[in-house]
Design goal:
The structure is a homodimer of 240-residue chains.
Chain A: E1 4-7, E2 22-26, H1 31-40, E3 45-48, H2 52-57, E4 64-69, E5 72-73, E6 95-99, H3 103-108, E7 115-119, H4 124-134, E8 138-142, H5 151-164, H6 173-185, H7 189-193, H8 197-203, H9 208-214, E9 224-227, E10 230-233
Parallel strand pairs in A: 1-8, 2-7, 2-8, 3-6, 4-6
Antiparallel strand pairs in A: 4-5, 9-10
Helix pairs in contact in A: 4-5, 5-6
Catalytic activity (chains A, B): (2R)-O-phospho-3-sulfolactate + H2O = (2R)-3-sulfolactate + phosphate
Cofactor (chains A, B): Mg(2+)
Family (chains A, B): Belongs to the ComB family.
Chain lengths: 240, 240
């Protein structure tokens, strides 16, 4: 039986052997939630890049460009990191290049894996189904906040372990802790996260509605995966 | 009001500014529990060192030498890492040099802090009282297991946060998660930890009794702190 492990920060990734594994990259607030939303609203492919300048250069290839630093949209980019800004036809039929403080870093540092899947609560079931099909050992790579542990990515890891506990083994401490925390939080994740200074800092940036949106389960049947140099959606869109 | 934060691994320590802070170094299974036990049984000072050869050299200065790697006592040392081997007068009046897989590394990497305190469940109350007196910002440095997150050190961080929640602020995600996990586990920490493959691996080394021992709260009024080049006990021994 394949196994699930959780890496709480990109800063710990060197301790994990990604070869032959499936990585689920997660940055709930908000990079991976936003990418899933972009695909659900018609984006054709997404280029996650680490640096602002690299991202800007994609404009020359006809891409929309998106950038966030410290929770705020960076200047001179088409889009920021709020999922709502990717709705209403804005990204329909378009390629998007995106760079964020934490999420795009987690994705790009995971490229050595056999498969890299983009995870969020919004597409939790699609991710779980895909992992069941693959039957590879799974490592959930939490983006964290500037290298440190964060709760919302951990809750996602716990939710995924909860979905997969019949079909995968997980006896390592990080996965067990994630599952316990998800079980404590799932009745009201928003209230659970409200204690967090990190989440309150994001709330102060007027993204209260973003947070509520990003905690919804299974809104989209979208499955972004890394292929060659970009993310593409392996699934269709079930509902908008 | 001073604050508490938790660093889940020595591999994340570079993200924390230790200057002017109090670090509580913790390796519940078993380095810091064992050091507290050694002081409770009469050790005069402890030299925590990172390398086996460095540890061996302390024998020339009249120290007992203790070494553990991968859960097992290293060859040609006086002592291993089981707290029981430090009882019955063995360390009475002696200096001990010790190196372990995770714990001594966490201690030595924390030297930049204003104060470094050795924490374990065995001396939880003494540590909490000392931190209340100091009124410095606190960082709990979990030794983890070979750089990865572990549950038992996290439960200690949660127990300490629980003790100090009237007198310190903690809104960061790692401390909140630790407190939630401690609250879920505290009714039966041994049962909680039994799910962990890391703890089961230790159990297979016949340290079942060590684990139960190390989870006992407030057995000793011992307060090991770093001074210059060694650990000394700031408190007396309340009970043996």
């Amino acid at each position: 039986m394949a196994s699930i492990d959780v890496c709480y920060s990109p800063e710990l990734l060197h301790l994990y052997d990604l070869e032959g594994k499936a990585v689920v990259a997660v940055d709930i607030l908000r990079a991976t939630s936003t990418m899933v939303t972009a695909f659900a609203h018609g984006a054709t492919d997404i280029f996650p890049v680490m640096e602002l300048e690299e991202c800007r250069a994609y404009a020359g290839q006809g891409c929309l460009t998106a950038a966030e630093r410290n929770g705020i949209k960076a200047e001179d980019f088409d889009l920021g990191n709020s999922p709502f800004s990717y709705m209403n036809g804005v990204v329909q039929g378009r390629s998007v290049a995106i760079t964020t403080t934490n999420g795009t870093r987690a994705i790009r540092l995971s490229e050595a894996a056999e498969e890299v899947v983009i995870g969020s609560f919004l597409n939790l079931q699609s991710v779980a189904d895909h992992l069941r099909d693959l039957q590879l050992d799974v490592i959930v790579v939490c983006a964290g906040w500037k290298g440190k542990f964060n709760l919302e990515d951990t809750l996602f890891a716990g939710a995924l372990a909860d979905c997969l506990q019949q079909d995968f083994t997980f006896e390592n401490d990080a996965t067990l802790a994630s599952l316990h925390l998800y079980q404590a939080a799932k009745a009201d994740m928003f209230a659970f996260l409200k204690q967090s200074s990190h989440v309150r800092r994001l709330e102060n940036l007027n993204i209260h509605e973003d947070i509520k949106y990003c905690l919804q389960h299974n809104l989209y049947d979208v499955l972004p995966v890394w292929r060659h140099d970009r993310l593409v959606d392996l699934a269709g869109v079930k509902k908008l």
